[in-house]
UniProtKB/TrEMBL annotation:
UniProt KW Signal keyword: yes
Top-level taxon in the UniProt lineage: Bacteria
Keywords assigned by UniProt, alphabetized: Signal
Signal sequence, start to end: 1-28
Descriptive protein name: DUF6268 domain-containing protein
Domain DUF6268 per the UniProt entry, residue ranges: 156-323
Length: 378
């Protein structure tokens, strides 16, 4: 009897405890103590800027929009053109010397790197470094002293820039950038910073209308059109749907974007590029021993970018380059001009006319790993 009594009593306790737990669970299902909390939706897989800079809320307003390609950390680029014609007239001689030739090589390469010095939702500071190199070869360099001076000369650019992106509130933002470069054929043993220094900058104030639409207005002081010029700019970034978008900084570039999938993007549009070099002549050009060489060009381009690995992308680009200008100036005259920024008061020492040419370029670039972006987005 005691044995069965103890077993019955123990069973009663187990059943009572189970009933209490079941009742509590049922009550919890009917009237939860706190409302359920759901995480915010994750950004698109291709929107690394949204994960890294925009954040999960509209309050972090920046120029980028969902659907844009990944932000680039390190870029290695090489570009080559087919042969194109060149006609040159040396104005510092009497009678003026006029020659025709063919450029058999115009190759460019650069490497750029960007690193965040400060990265929080309301202030971002980015440091950039770059090294560029350009070379020319001619079919017959002996046709002109200008060709001989430029033949196989390494035209270099070493630069640094500092960019600040400042979200003001949930809609407004501004971007400021300053850049300094050493442009020319210098070597480390004969570098005079004041001779080769080029400075530029920009300021844009913008509005983030939605995660898919951002625009702004401002001004740039740059060498985009060959000489240092101050001109207005309009930034317009917009993603219309899951496939199409526009990325532009008018008038310097306008690009239509096509998102094939999260790992493949296509682009088409145009860019305006310019360069400005200080070169020391191997052979004096009359009394001139130093020239400022200024280039201006318009590129119509098609471009494809594809992810190779989580943090490694590949880009290929092709198109047609129209040469808007390639002239050389007397350095002293160039620097004395009272209208340097506006572009007046200069005398061309060598006036060149270049033919257009198709071009192709390839590049590799590193982007923030997706795991890191997902961790920052949480």
């Amino acid at each position: 009897m005691p044995f069965f009594y103890l077993r019955s009593r123990r069973l009663f306790y187990y059943l009572s405890a189970a009933a209490v737990l079941a009742g509590s669970a049922a009550q919890a299902q009917v009237t939860p103590r706190t409302p359920p909390v759901y995480p915010p939706p994750a950004p698109l897989a291709t929107d690394t800027l949204a994960a890294n800079q925009v954040g999960q809320a509209q309050e972090f307003a920046v120029p980028s929009v969902i659907g844009m390609g990944p932000s680039k950390g390190v870029v290695a680029h090489i570009e080559a053109l087919s042969n194109f014609s060149i006609t040159s007239q040396i104005n510092d001689r009497e009678p003026k010397e006029r020659t025709e030739n063919t450029v058999t090589k115009n190759r460019r390469a650069f490497i750029k790197a960007y690193a965040p010095l400060l990265n929080n939702p309301h202030l971002k500071v980015i440091l950039g470094l770059n090294y560029d190199r350009e070379e020319f070869q001619f079919a017959d360099p002996n046709k002109s002293v200008f060709y001989r001076d430029l033949e196989d000369k390494g035209l270099k650019v070493i630069g640094t820039q500092l960019a600040v992106i400042r979200p003001v509130d949930e809609v407004h933002w501004y971007l400021a950038r300053v850049k300094a470069e050493l442009n020319g054929d210098y070597t480390s043993s004969e570098l005079n910073v004041s001779d080769y220094l080029r400075t530029s900058g920009e300021f844009i104030y913008g509005w983030k209308r939605s995660p898919y639409y951002s625009w702004g207005v401002g001004a740039q002081l740059s060498y985009t059109f060959g000489r240092q010029s101050l001109y207005p700019v309009i930034l317009y970034n917009r993603t219309f749907n899951s496939r199409w978008g526009v990325e532009s900084l008018f008038p310097a570039r306008v690009t239509l974007r096509r998102n094939l999938d999260p790992k493949t993007l296509l682009f088409g549009g145009y860019t305006v590029d310019g360069s400005n070099y200080n070169i020391k002549l191997r052979e004096p050009l009359g009394e001139l021993r130093t020239l400022i060489v200024r280039q201006r060009e318009l590129k119509f381009r098609l471009r494809a970018e594809r992810e190779i690995y989580d943090f490694l992308w590949f880009g290929v680009e092709g198109g047609y380059r129209y040469n808007a200008g390639f002239s050389a100036f007397n350095e002293d005259n160039y620097r004395r001009s009272l209208f340097n920024i506006l572009g007046g008061g200069r005398t061309q020492a060598v006036d060149n006319t270049l033919g257009g040419a198709p071009y192709v370029s390839v590049e590799l670039f590193l982007v923030p790993p997706r795991k890191l972006l997902n961790r920052l987005a949480k």
